């Protein structure tokens, strides 16, 4: 079961804060239309299982990681994630190799964990929820992840997405993600980019889906314009009060906006950090 937060308890960065989805009536950017934000994002079913990732163990975790991952997947299913593509991908990727060895024993808890540079690896529920939302009823071919961090979410995406582009602005995390993806032999399936995620990757766009792993006051216009027609973007939005926002491009200059659960992420920043 997910831990519910008490009245005075703040959520950990990159974690889900249970809340009833609602549209709060704030003004929308040009071209946005409000939709029924109480609609639950269900998930499509899987036609084939994700490939199993082979990786070196992190300390002694390799001995128990399969069992712990299966328990994590069962918990995610109980929490409402029903897309078997996402669940199989989460089961295939060894999350413990993406965190410091000292934290490996906590890798399969439903918690965000520090990865250095004041950043976190998001809790498994948030990763699964965001991917399932942009993939509902479809299989994107080209996906952009903004905020690659340690590379975990890109590794999960690569299990059933043909073309994954992941951009990271912090040089140390870019190097960490590259090391982790190499350990899993995923560098040919994930294109990792060191750069400013708020600008997207215009030379590769359009994208069928964009997943943003940091919260800004508003979704950068550059990312909205890099969505393919019918494409979806999911991102946390806000500062002290944040909420997941699902955007679908409905036309040349129109987007539909749906607000989902309350969350807590690290801030979305422009520029690069060496």
TrEMBL record:
Entry's EC annotation: 2.1.1.77
Major subcellular site: cytoplasm
InterPro entries: PCMT (IPR000682), SAM-dependent_MTases_sf (IPR029063)
Superkingdom, taxonomy of origin: Bacteria
Places the protein is found: Cytoplasm
Family annotation (Pfam families): PCMT
Keywords: Cytoplasm, Methyltransferase, S-adenosyl-L-methionine, Transferase
Catalytic activity as recorded in UniProt: [protein]-L-isoaspartate + S-adenosyl-L-methionine = [protein]-L-isoaspartate alpha-methyl ester + S-adenosyl-L-homocysteine
Residues of the active site: 122
Enzyme class, first EC level, given as a word: transferase
Region (Disordered): 1-36
Family: Belongs to the methyltransferase superfamily. L-isoaspartyl/D-aspartyl protein methyltransferase family.
HAMAP family (alphabetical): PIMT
Function: Catalyzes the methyl esterification of L-isoaspartyl residues in peptides and proteins that result from spontaneous decomposition of normal L-aspartyl and L-asparaginyl residues. It plays a role in the repair and/or degradation of damaged proteins.
Record-given protein name: Protein-L-isoaspartate O-methyltransferase
Organism for this UniProt entry: Bordetella genomosp. 1
């Amino acid at each position: 079961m997910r831990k519910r937060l008490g009245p005075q308890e703040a959520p950990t960065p990159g974690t889900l804060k249970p809340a009833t989805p609602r549209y709060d009536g704030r003004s929308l950017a040009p071209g946005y239309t409000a939709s029924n934000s109480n609609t639950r994002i269900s998930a499509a079913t899987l036609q084939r299982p994700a490939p199993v990732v082979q990786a070196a163990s992190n300390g002694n975790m390799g001995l128990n990681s399969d069992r712990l991952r299966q328990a994590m997947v069962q918990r995610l299913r109980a929490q409402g994630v029903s897309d078997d593509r996402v669940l199989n991908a989460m089961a295939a990727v060894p999350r413990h190799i993406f965190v410091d060895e000292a934290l490996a024993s906590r890798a399969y808890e439903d918690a965000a964990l520090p990865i250095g540079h004041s950043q976190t690896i998001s809790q498994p529920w948030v990763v699964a929820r965001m991917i399932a939302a942009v993939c509902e009823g479809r299989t994107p071919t080209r996906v952009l992840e903004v905020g690659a961090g340690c590379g975990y979410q890109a590794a999960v995406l690569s299990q059933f997405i043909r073309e994954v582009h992941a951009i990271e602005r912090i040089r140390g995390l870019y190097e960490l993600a590259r090391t982790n993806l190499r350990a899993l032999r995923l560098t040919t399936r994930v294109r990792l980019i060191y750069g400013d995620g708020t600008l997207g990757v215009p030379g590769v766009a359009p994208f069928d889906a964009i997943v943003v792993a940091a919260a800004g006051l508003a979704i950068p216009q550059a990312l909205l314009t890099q969505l393919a027609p019918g494409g979806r973007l999911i991102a946390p939005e806000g500062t002290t009060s944040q909420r997941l926002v699902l955007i679908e491009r409905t036309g040349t200059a129109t987007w539909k906006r749906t607000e989902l659960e309350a969350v807590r992420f690290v801030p979305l920043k422009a520029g690069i950090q060496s």
